[in-house]
């Protein structure tokens, strides 16, 4: 897979996230996609990814900005760095109470690509920074 093709795939995935077009996001993923959740567990498969997106959209309204996409020369590994700007809509289990707090924090996703599809999505952000922003309200 070429670098340009991988960049286009990652861009399509991130643009779909911003558009809340979860079907397009899922179309970018391999059926057995590995999803490493920030400071959480690992889930495997598109169906689990679909459920994760549904849960997240109940609790958070987010948009990614300042996106920088990086891809290695093989096109098999990529990353995106961005700023997450969002609102905390409904209290998520184990986290502070939600009442519409706004937040902005740097984050990133690491990707693995195979046969034109994303086979791994590993998200990383500073949860303590997010909690501090939400508590400050």
Walk me through this protein's architecture.
The protein is 34% helix and 42% strand. The longest helix has 16 residues, at 3-18. It is of the alpha+beta class. It has one domain (3-136): Nuclear Transport Factor 2, Chain: A. The protein starts with a helix and ends with a helix. It has four helices and six strands; from the N terminus they run ααββαββββα. It has helices at 3-18, 22-27, 46-59, 127-136, and strands spanning 29-36, 42-44, 60-71, 77-88, 102-114, 117-125. A hairpin with a 5-residue loop joins strand 3 and strand 4. Strands 2-1-6-5-4-3 form a six-stranded mixed β-sheet, sandwiched between helices.
Summarize the SSE layout with pairings:
Elements: H1 3-18, H2 22-27, E1 29-36, E2 42-44, H3 46-59, E3 60-71, E4 77-88, E5 102-114, E6 117-125, H4 127-136
Parallel strand pairs: 1-6
Antiparallel strand pairs: 1-2, 3-4, 4-5, 5-6
- Give the helix level as a range of percent: 25-40%
| Topology order in helix (H) and strand (E) letters | HHEEHEEEEH
Bulk shape:
globular
CATH architecture: Roll
Structural class computed from helices and strand pairing: alpha+beta
Oligomer: single chain
Largest sheet, if any? 6 strands, mixed
Number of strands: 6
Mean pLDDT across all residues, rounded?
A: 96
CATH class: Alpha Beta
Number of helices: 4
Which residues form runs of ≥5 with pLDDT under 50?
none
CATH topology: Nuclear Transport Factor 2, Chain: A
Distance between the termini: 44 Å
Q: Which value, in Å, is the CA radius of gyration?
A: 15 Å
Beta-strand content bin: 35-45%
Numbering strands along the chain, what is their spatial order in the largest sheet? Answer: 2-1-6-5-4-3
Domain count? 1
